[in-house]
Amino acid sequence: MGFQPHNLPTGAGYFQIAGGSGRESRHVTVHYYKPSQFTPQSRILIVIPGAGRNSNSYRNAWLEVASRKDILVAALGYPEETYDFAAYQMGGVVKDIKLNNPKFISTGPNARILQLQDKDIQMNPEADQNNWIFSDFDRTFDLLAKITGSKRAGYDIFGHSAGGQILHRLALFHPASKAERIVAANAGFYTLPSFSKPPPMGMEGTGVRKEQLSQILGEQLTILLGEEDNSDAAGGTLLHTPLIDKQGKNRFARGRNFFRTGLEISKSEQLQFGWKLQSVPRTGHDFARMAEVAAQLLYP
Fold first, then answer.
1. What is the pLDDT of residues 59-91, one digit of tens each?
2. 103 lies in some domain
3. Contact partners, residue 205, CB within 8 Å, separation at least 6
4. Which of 60, 220, 234, 254 gives the lowest tally of CB atoms within 10 Å of its CB?
5. What DSSP character marks residue 66?
6. Domain with 209 in it: what CATH number?
7. Residue 39 lies in a domain
8. Gap between the Cα atoms of 189 and 239, Å rounded
9. How far apart are CA 242 and CA 262, in angstroms?
10. How many domains does the chain have?
């Protein structure tokens, strides 16, 4: 369909947008679906894929509910050649990442683990927020609203696996976004709302201030976890280091730890807590099933 269109036809399609300020040449593909019943009051959902960056498949997982509930869906595809682990999974809040002596182990047909010592992970905080990808979501929403005549003030956003990593970091690092409801599903590991530890474990040195903690913990963030995403063989790539394993040995445990940490901080700081935790029985690392459950939560 081209680059940053001036209108959006009904049905499924795709177009490209430029990257953020200073990275305009790094294009992002937007796979969208606009239902035939779309109105200016229809909700808009942005979807962030996993490490496969398969935005078309992630969009397709929402087609049925989007058609039935009159929701405009836009799944963002970030190419690996221009968005590496630091720029994608970490949301760009770190740079100059190096993984020394990585050990990959296959644990199933679609699963592998990456083992590292913490000293073998090198990275630096990225204090220039123009290099974070979180503002892309508001820009995409603003473009969609403009070319469809939407009257919505904000959007919902869902991400799974690597997308779940990005979206819990959206809540931490960019709580002033136009995202009204955030669903982060089956993230591999988490950055914690700590200002005494640098990334990837905390937020020290990133420019986020402790004064923003009230806004961060008040976000409408749902941590969505498959109860069977609880082993190295569950699917996808799972990172193990001694420090990260303190969050838990699997995605299910790590997600619960992240939520519990936020809850404990909200109590100790006497701050309102907006996060929710939802587990999905009989479900592992399955983006289509997690999207189905997310749809039930967002659009009952």
1. 999 999 999 999 999 999 999 999 999 999 999
2. no
3. 125, 127, 198, 199
4. 220
5. H
6. 3.40.50.1820
7. yes
8. 8
9. 21
10. 1
